[in-house]
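User: Good morning. I'm curious how uridine-5'-diphosphate would be positioned relative to this chain. Could you predict the structure with it bound?
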Amino acid sequence: MSSKSKLALVIPCYNEELVIKSTVETLLQVFNDIISKGKIDSTSYIYLVDDGSKDKTWEIIEELHKTNPSRVKGMKFVRNYGNQKALIAGLLGVKEVGCDCAISIDADLQQDENSIEKFIDEYHNGADIVSGIRNDRKTDSFFKKFTAHCFYKVMNILGVKIPQNHSDFRLVSKNALEILSKYSETELFLRGFFHETGLKTAFVNFDVKPRALGCSKFNFFSLTSLALNGITSYSIVPLRLISVLGLITIFISMMVGFDAVCDALFRHDAPSGYATIIIMLAFLGGLQLVCLGIIGEYLGQIFREVKARPRYIKESELL
Ligand code: UDP
Ligand code: MG
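Assistant: Good morning! Here's the predicted structure, ligand included:
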């Protein structure tokens, strides 16, 4: 592998007018530093994906491109498609523009940009994927910490062994980008995808900084949707659990039935079973609805995929 690899930095941006300029300036300094050490090629560049921002993000990106066209490139979506699709678009975009490896990093630079060099070192040591692992979640709210912890636990129980505190701060080689381009799934869950490829993976621990300006673009609903997409894209265990639940329910119903028969035959106090009936009815009703909901999630996933709509629509690109 050549020691002078062409690096592309992929940055998804949604309403990031407050931070994007200083982020690009900081990253250009990091670039110069790593280029001067001879670790990446001088043609390396930053690729910004504007995920349908409603503020001045795109205008700022255009300006940055004008002052430094070889170093700053970008594309804009017609509307907001969400962080995962912006990331996929960025990775596929840099594959087309050309690079040996790509690193995705957030526009707010909460992820420590000084770790980029460590990612490159791991890549030069032969890794196709270098995943950033957060040292801690100090900057996250209690809610986000708790839900993230539950998500990784559930994914692991369901057989998708994604490391805890994994992030989308990640290096992928040209080889991995090639594989990514072959996946036509519209709702691709990147963390699951990169894990599934089985390519040689290394890990780099990094510190998370608080967001300097602006606010988080994720809320309860977008996080839930991301988590559900992750689960339904990569595990069918919940569907199997429904069958297990069904069997358990049948077993419990048989016991209750046996008790009811004993009541009728020997104890003759039938009305006392009223509470049991009500409880069983409510329990079974709830259970059926939960099971329907789980099936609905998978049906929704099939519904979205079967239409094979484009993942996103580009409005413009700066190359
Ligand atoms: N982002 C995006 N589209 C969205 C939401 C977020 O491209 O719909 C980008 C955002 O601009 C940032 C990254 O995804 O670069 C992570 O978002 P944020 O910092 O808000 O998430 P948090 O750090 O709170 O998890
Ligand atoms: Mg952030």
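The mean pLDDT is 88. The longest strand covers residues 166-173.
Let me know if you'd like a different ligand tried.
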